[in-house]
Amino acid sequence: MSNNISVEDVPLNRFHRLLTVRSGGGSFVDGYVLSIIGIAMTKVSPALGLSPFWEGLIAASALIGIFFGGFLGGALTDRLGRRMIYFVGPTLFIVCSVAQFWVQSGEVLFALRFLNGVAVGIEYPVATAFLVEFMPKKSRGPCLATLTILWFAGAATAYLVGDAILNFGGTDAWRYTLASTAVIGALLFLVRLGTPESPRWLISKGRHKEAEAIIRRVYGSGFSLKNLPEQAESKNLSFASLLHSGYGKRMAFVTIFWMCSVTPVFAVYAFAPKVLEALHLSGDWASYGSIAITLLFVVGCIIATRLVNTLGRRKLLLHSFLWSGLALLLLGALRDGPSMIILLMFGAYALFIGGAQVLQLVYPNEIFPTEIRAGAVGVGTSMSRIGAAVGTYLVPISLQSIGIGSTMYIAAGITFIGLIVSWFLAPETAARDLNDAASLNEETEPRVSSGGLNKHRNQY
C-alpha cells in the first residue's frame, strides 16, 4: 500500500524521539565537558603542580579542540556519511576521558582535553544533520532547539556529579571527576547503535536503493522515495564551490549571527559573579543572582523552543537580539543603579537571548543543501568558539581596564551587530520543506507541495 504523504508531514514517531535523544547527547556532553574542568581544577592544579599559564591553557583546551573539530566533523560528515561519523565523538569521549584518570602532567591533560573538544566539535555537524534530515518539518525547529537546552542540562549535571565525586572520592577524586565523561560517552555510543544512514545523504550520492530501504524501515512499508521531497544528486562540488554558487551570503549570515549571539553569553555566563560584583552586587545578591541568571538562560531557551514555529525563525531572531541588546545597554547605563534593577536587566538579557541561542543549530541545518549541510554547521560551530574564547578571555581584562559600563556597552554593540545582520540576511524557513528552505529561492511563503521543487534542483 502506498500513499502520497511527504515524510516531512508525518506525525512524530518513536524513531524521531529516539533520534532526538541520540543526537541530543552530543550537546549534553558539550555542556558537561566544558563545565567539569572548572569543578575539578581546584584539585587538579596542586596535584599536577600547574602554573597559571597551564591552568588557563587547560581550561581553554576543549574550546580550542571544538574549533578544529567543527571543521573536521563537517567535512567528514558530508564526505563519508552521517552514520560513520556518528560514532567518532562517543569513541573519543570514552578513550580520552579514561586516559585522563592516569594523567601525570599538564601537557598530557591539555592534549586529552583538546581531543575531547575535537569530539564535541565533530558532534554538532553530524548530530544536527542526522536530526534535521529525518525530522518532520513541524518538529524540526523545536527538536533542534532542544539541543541548546540539553547543553545547560549537561553543564548542570557536571556541577552536581563533580561536586559529589570531589566530596566523597578521596585523594584521587579529581581523576574520577575528569574520567566521568567516559560514562556519558559509553551511554551515547550504545544508544546510537542501530541508527540508519540518512536517506537524503544516500540519494545525494546516487545510492537510491539503500535510501528507499531505510525510508520503508523508518516510516513503514507504504513509503518510498516518492514520499521524500526531491533533491539533486551531488555533482562532487566542493564546499568552496557551493559557497561561490550563492551560499556564501548564507554562510556569512550564520557565522556572524552565531558569533554575535554566543560571544556575550559565554562571557556573562562564565563571569557572572565577577560581573555582578563590578555592578556593586555582593554577598547574597551576587550568589542568588548567579543562580537566577543561569536558570533564566534555560527558561529563555525553553520559551524560544515553544515559539520557534509559531513566531517563526526570523521574527524570533530579531526580537531576541533587539530586547537582549537593550537589556545590556541599560546595564551599562544603570551600572550604579539599585540592585534589584541590575538583576532585572541581567535576567532580561538571559531570558531574551534564548531565541538567538536555540536558532544557532536551526538555521544552518535548514538553509543549506544536503551536500554541504554538515560542513556549514561545522564552520558555524568553529567560528562561534572563536567568539566564545575571545569573549571569555577579554571580560576580566575589560572589567579592569575600561570598567563595567563600557564592557556592557561593547556586549550590547556586538548584540546589535547580530540584529543588523539578521535584519538584512535572515530568511524565514518555518513550515517549509527542508529542500525548499535550502534552495536559493528567496520567497517567504512556504510551499506545501514538493512537486514545485523540481525547478530549483539545479540550484543545489
TrEMBL record:
<feature type="transmembrane region" description="Helical">
    <location>
        <begin position="109"/>
        <end position="132"/>
    </location>
</feature>
<dbReference type="InterPro" id="IPR036259">
    <property type="entry name" value="MFS_trans_sf"/>
</dbReference>
<feature type="transmembrane region" description="Helical">
    <location>
        <begin position="84"/>
        <end position="103"/>
    </location>
</feature>
<feature type="transmembrane region" description="Helical">
    <location>
        <begin position="173"/>
        <end position="191"/>
    </location>
</feature>
<feature type="transmembrane region" description="Helical">
    <location>
        <begin position="251"/>
        <end position="273"/>
    </location>
</feature>
<keyword id="KW-1133">Transmembrane helix</keyword>
<dbReference type="Pfam" id="PF00083">
    <property type="entry name" value="Sugar_tr"/>
</dbReference>
<feature type="transmembrane region" description="Helical">
    <location>
        <begin position="53"/>
        <end position="72"/>
    </location>
</feature>
<comment type="similarity">
    <text>Belongs to the major facilitator superfamily. Sugar transporter (TC 2.A.1.1) family.</text>
</comment>
<dbReference type="InterPro" id="IPR005828">
    <property type="entry name" value="MFS_sugar_transport-like"/>
</dbReference>
<feature type="transmembrane region" description="Helical">
    <location>
        <begin position="144"/>
        <end position="161"/>
    </location>
</feature>
<dbReference type="InterPro" id="IPR020846">
    <property type="entry name" value="MFS_dom"/>
</dbReference>
<feature type="transmembrane region" description="Helical">
    <location>
        <begin position="375"/>
        <end position="395"/>
    </location>
</feature>
<feature type="transmembrane region" description="Helical">
    <location>
        <begin position="316"/>
        <end position="334"/>
    </location>
</feature>
<dbReference type="InterPro" id="IPR050360">
    <property type="entry name" value="MFS_Sugar_Transporters"/>
</dbReference>
<feature type="region of interest" description="Disordered">
    <location>
        <begin position="441"/>
        <end position="460"/>
    </location>
</feature>
<feature type="transmembrane region" description="Helical">
    <location>
        <begin position="407"/>
        <end position="426"/>
    </location>
</feature>
<feature type="transmembrane region" description="Helical">
    <location>
        <begin position="21"/>
        <end position="41"/>
    </location>
</feature>
<feature type="transmembrane region" description="Helical">
    <location>
        <begin position="340"/>
        <end position="363"/>
    </location>
</feature>
<feature type="transmembrane region" description="Helical">
    <location>
        <begin position="285"/>
        <end position="304"/>
    </location>
</feature>
<dbReference type="InterPro" id="IPR005829">
    <property type="entry name" value="Sugar_transporter_CS"/>
</dbReference>
<feature type="domain" description="Major facilitator superfamily (MFS) profile">
    <location>
        <begin position="19"/>
        <end position="430"/>
    </location>
</feature>
<keyword id="KW-0812">Transmembrane</keyword>
<protein>
    <submittedName>
        <fullName>MFS transporter</fullName>
    </submittedName>
</protein>
<keyword id="KW-0472">Membrane</keyword>
